[in-house]
Amino acid sequence: MFEGVYTALITPFRGDGVDWDALERHIENQVQGGVDGVVPMGTTGESPTLSFEEHEEFIHRVVKIINGRIKVIAGTGANSTKEAIWLTKGAIDAGVDAVLSVNPYYNKPTQSGLIAHYESIDRECKIPIILYNIPGRSGVNFLPESVRELLDRTENIVAMKEASGDIAQMMKLIEICGSRLTVLSGDDNLLLPLLAVGGKGVISVLSNLLPADMKKVVTLFEKGELELCREHFYRLLPLCRAMFLETNPIPIKAAMEMAGHCSGDLRLPLTSISDSNREILKSRLVNYGVKLK
Q1: Per the confidence metrics, is the pTM higher than 0.90?
Q2: What is the CATH number of domain 4-211?
């Protein structure tokens, strides 16, 4: 079962190398914050800029640090089906609980191509697979009817991180796939609306900084404390929006640096947040009550 709050881990850098000490501290903060799991090597982790060797080592280290305390869902998507299978098998060897597989990007497969892509991964890799629909980055939108067809053809597809931004599409997905597919928000801004229509949680950017606060939204909702849930969510919402002042993970990296958790270093082609947006972000962090260094 993959429900609740899963943190889409940043990759802390020190210069051009991975800051392994900062990663360990970061993961301990996530465990203490009560999240249900972490997602290394996704979009927020700048996975396209890491070498295969770094990608593999990062996942292995995360699994070792977590040591079974919470779930690890490794990002193993690629625009080459063979590469996605290779990355997924490597994650299985590392001991992850599931994989997150993004729609193939740049080459823009058709719906039948998406189905064939995921069928191939499912056939070769016996591990829970979480689909990742983010048409704004991948260029293709995996439609609910196609997802249902994929479920009929496969055994290991268990969930979807839905980041289309279209709540009506998410509702259609939940309506026609039912209990066969857990739907998680891929957008912190839409966590509460998605919970209200049957979603089961979020793969979150903001929980890098505020794991317990993001978890509280889901906990309050599950307890039926809806007014408190709404109040808490709307208090978080300006920060959720701030995470997309510029391309993710630029703002969350800046926020983590401001709070003293790690450097804000990014790998090209991503560059540091603009001065104007840094001030907006800083103001929202202070207004929320985040202690800055």
Answers
A1: yes
A2: 3.20.20.70
